[in-house]
Amino acid sequence: MRERIAFIAALVVAALVSALLFAPRFQRPPEPLDAASAAPAASVAPPEPAPPALAPPAPPPLPAYVRVDPESRTACRGGMVLVDGIYCPYVGHHCAAYIDEEKDICARFEPEVLCEGRLQHRRFCIDVFEYPNIEGVRPVVMVNWLEAKRACEIEGKRLCSGEEWEFACEGPQMWPYPYGIARDPDACNIDRKISMPVLETFADPWKISAEVERLDRRVASGEMHRCVSPFGVRDMTGNVDEWVNNELGTLDEKPFRSTLKGGYWGPIRSRCRPVTSTHNRWFRFYQVGFRCCSDALDGGKAVTPAAKTARIPRRSPMVDPGGRQGP
User: Fold this and answer.
1) Whole-angstrom Cα distance, residue 112 to residue 93?
2) CA-CA-CA-CA torsion sign (13, 17, 23, 26)
3) How far is residue 189's CA from residue 231's CA, in Å, rounded to a whole number?
4) Burial class (CB in 10 A: 0-12, 13-18, 19+), 114
5) Gap between the Cα atoms of 176 and 270, Å rounded
6) Which secondary-structure segment (H or E) carries 112?
7) From CA 216, how far away is CA 142, in angstroms rounded?
8) DSSP string spanning 285-308?
9) Which of 56, 226, 275, 290 makes a 20 to 30 Å CA pair with 162?
């Protein structure tokens, strides 16, 4: 009897377990959707396509007096132009109106130019812009003469000689300024108001960077569109002083081989012929940069005596870009 009762109890338990296992599971009925979620999704318009990028404005045309030698493409490396012509070693200009006679800052020159010395045929290549010779980039500063020389050599170039730099700046008419015979403060980055440097900071590596930034008035290479020489070289006067190799100077005493040309952004001479040859080869300053030259790729000599038929009158008129002779 007891076994039977136990057996029945086991059956009951098994039935209950089966019911739990196989009975449909309880499910919560889904919550009703509200009207907003029940509505069909609104169609989303695709985003408007971005307008095409505007092409940068075309650079203004070169001044009419500029003649870039077409041989530049084959005779020079990229970023350089060919300078080819007759160079007068000694040139004299007479200032007709000074801005500051003591500082030799001339507003306008007399139309007559004096040429002395044996004429030379110069043919070489020169960077269009100040180093690093990239349009739209400010030129380097705080570089000494040795560093400038080395940087040019790494590119297979060399520092310009003083005479090369002068000829590339003044052109065949021997202008005092790369753009003519009258000073134009709007053509090149010149005659800017300057701050006086605190010289002690240039001996302190923790302060020098901030001081250079405080003094800086450079503009990007090529920004001054009218600051271009007759050969198509940019920013030769103003912006930054440029190291050249003064072949008549010495390494250890004045006048030094390490010579500066062109002036910087401040109110100084900023002409093609003046030089500053009082700084040794280790000198560096906040406004000092450089550009490079090279021989032409065809192997021609950079300087030779001019042909006997070449002639520049001892006295000749300078015709300014406007077609006028003199001011």
Assistant:
1) 7
2) positive
3) 19
4) middle
5) 9
6) strand 112-116
7) 11
8) -TTEEE-EEE--TT---SEEEPPT
9) 226
How buried is residue 133: exposed, middle or buried, by Cβ count under 10 Å (0-12/13-18/19+)?
A: buried
Q: Give the CA count within 13 Å in the CB-facing half-sphere of 296.
A: 19
Domain ranges for the chain, please list them: 72-317
- pTM reported for the whole predicted model: 0.81
SS3 152: helix
CATH number at 72-317: 3.90.1580
Q: The tokens 């296992």 sit on which residue?
A: 21
Token pair for residue 154?
A: 């790494």
Which amino acid would we find at residue 102?
E
Query: What pLDDT tens digit does each residue of the chain (327 aa) get?
Result: 444 444 334 433 344 334 433 344 434 555 554 544 445 555 566 777 777 777 777 778 999 999 999 999 999 999 999 999 999 999 999 999 999 999 999 999 999 999 999 999 999 999 999 999 999 999 999 999 999 999 999 999 999 999 999 999 999 999 999 999 999 999 999 999 999 999 999 999 999 999 999 999 999 999 999 999 999 999 999 999 999 999 999 999 999 999 999 999 999 999 999 999 999 999 999 999 999 999 999 999 999 999 999 999 999 999 878 654 444
